[in-house]
Amino acid sequence: MRVVVPAAEGRAVKVGAGKRVRVTDLEGSQVGDLFVFAAGDLTEHLSASHTRAVTSRLFPAVGEQFVTDRRRPILTLVDDDSPGVHDMLIAACDPARYRALGVSGFHASCADNLRRSLASLDLASAHTPQPVNLFMRIPVSGDGRLSWLSAISRPGDAITFEAVVDCVFAVSACPQDLVGVNGRRPTSLAIDLLSDHDPRAKEPDK
Amino acid sequence: MRVVVPAAEGRAVKVGAGKRVRVTDLEGSQVGDLFVFAAGDLTEHLSASHTRAVTSRLFPAVGEQFVTDRRRPILTLVDDDSPGVHDMLIAACDPARYRALGVSGFHASCADNLRRSLASLDLASAHTPQPVNLFMRIPVSGDGRLSWLSAISRPGDAITFEAVVDCVFAVSACPQDLVGVNGRRPTSLAIDLLSDHDPRAKEPDK
């Protein structure tokens, strides 16, 4: 089952324990802000800082797991069919971020997209957890400086996860068009829920 | 006014807007987990991921500010009289962390110290924000790997902040004795609330 995440919007799906889910950058150079919550209790969510403590990496390697704020594994990174450049340092964009960048009226944001996509499932989270920023390119220099560069993912690049527990999997196609992370042109993503016998579950289809 | 944070314990103080507060490593090689909340509403707190987005650094430089999850400046880093090695990547230790390290009974933790120190002020936070880990040495290699090394702070090393808004400032003297971050011997810290005319407000006293 494919759920397209239109440019600058968000979508959330439920993923059962043991099921695989893939996020594809349909047009290239597009960041996806991923938020994952325990299905039974959204106060438990994927946590970047706890995941770094477990993996001792800025971003997990293929085969490693993301954990929640209660240190329970929630997602395994099973395949990365992209240049492998992702970010787990930067907060989700939100209305305050766009105000600081000079926007006076409404601007779509990943925080707002999360809220809306959860609401579409009759769910809500009291706060916006730090996301996993798929395809986002924020290199760290030796002196600890961060650069904000355009994503180098190509059309069709994808990353695949397996849910460790029943979870809610929300993806925002980042609407950022004032900083170059999306090449200044926000585009769409796709979420594919892979069936157990889907050949794509084993072999990427690009 | 000095508040000593005994080894493996936590303490919280209220700091008014414009006031300065210093954290000193009394015996050396001791990590302090710092949590800062807006005094009027503890759901607003210092956020590592939002601070990185503002500073474009893994850790702010002297003169830069830490911001909250609502992107409001809450603390300015005004002086760093230490080797300048701090961490803003790793979650606070908690009971689950010590269980994973093989501890079966009670073990003090920074998350528990935060809860207790807030309770001493009749305050509570629904969750444990990602802390600012003062003096903690987690270098990042070029390929994104993190190392857990003993703190290189010496006795008397200190870091000084100025509150931008009225805030609650909680420090845990990290009880971690199973991983080498504290040189395997947790020791004490001090929180100094500096008076406006305290010479230490301008000139470190070591």
Q: What would a concise description of this structure say?
A:
The structure is a homodimer of 206-residue chains. Chain A has helices spanning 48-55, 95-100, 110-119; strands spanning 2-5, 10-15, 20-25, 32-38, 65-67, 73-81, 132-134, 157-163, 167-173, 189-194. Chain A has 206 residues and is an alpha+beta fold.
What does the model show?
Chains A, B: InterPro entries: DUF1989. Chains A, B: Residues 4-168 form the DUF1989 domain. Chains A, B: This is Urea carboxylase-associated family protein. Two copies of one chain form a homodimer. Chain A is α+β, with helices and mostly antiparallel strands. Chain A has one domain. Chain A has three helices and ten strands, in the order ββββαββααββββ. Chain A has helices at 48-55, 95-100, 110-119; strands at residues 2-5, 10-15, 20-25, 32-38, 65-67, 73-81, 132-134, 157-163, 167-173, 189-194. In chain A, the strands form two sheets. Chain A has a six-stranded antiparallel beta sheet with strand order 1-10-3-8-6-5, covered by helices on one side. Chain A has a four-stranded antiparallel beta sheet with strand order 2-9-4-7, with helices on one face. The longest helix of chain A is centred in the middle third of the chain and has 10 residues, at 110-119. The interface between A and B is medium-sized, with 32 and 32 residues.
